[in-house]
Amino acid sequence: MLYLTVMLLFLLFAAVAMTVNEGLWSNTIALFNILLAGILAIFAGVPFGNFLLAQSGKPAELAWYFVFAGIWGTFALSVTVMHLATKAASDVRMRFVPLLDKIAGPLMGILVAVMLTSFTAYTLERVPIKAGEWSFGDASEWQQTTFKYARAPFRGVLKSFVQGEKADHPFLGS
Q: Which three-class secondary structure state does DSSP give residue 50?
């Protein structure tokens, strides 16, 4: 569990480093893409993973592999397609007041990093940890707290999107 927590913190800092120098417009578009791709990945990736499991003929104990791959495959594909679509649609960068762009751009970049890390924590907690492959039993208190707070932003967006219904449904049929 220590490695997963360190990976989440590394992802957060790497994403901040990659987005902090982008402008307000680029980071806002990236946030929009991550949120929509994450929601799409949860609701389309789980059935896709279950479909892959059924097609492979593997035992149900391996369902979490397929569901996790389905979610992340759907996320990667949808965020790439949305990035290309928004890049083509927004050919000219929107210009803001320089002071606003200088202050709000990095803040929006931090928000992008938080949402990407939150999506990662949410999927880790909902699929392999709920499947019993990893557990919080051997995790220290700060690791459990890190996961709890890391998954909260995306979980809140997801619950708002579906009005609280099915946001925490079991992905693996348990």
A: helix
Give the pLDDT mean for 8-31. 91
Helix (H, G, I), strand (E, B) or coil at 90: coil
**Predicted local distance difference test score (pLDDT) of residue 174:** 41
pTM above 0.85, yes or no: yes
How far apart are alpha carbons 95 and 8 in whole angstroms? 33
Structural domain boundaries enclosing 63: 2-161
What are the backbone dihedrals phi and psi of residue 75, each rounded to the nearest 5 degrees, phi first?
Answer: -60, -50
Amino acid at 167: A
Residue 108 lies in a domain: yes
d(CA 19, CA 15): 6
The DSSP code sequence of 131-158 is TTSS-STTS-HHHHHHHHHHHHHHHHHH
What distance in Å separates the CA atoms of residue 16 and residue 122, rounded to the nearest whole number? 19
**pLDDT-based confidence at 60, cuts 50/70/90?**
confident
Q: Locate tokens 């007041």: which residue?
A: 97
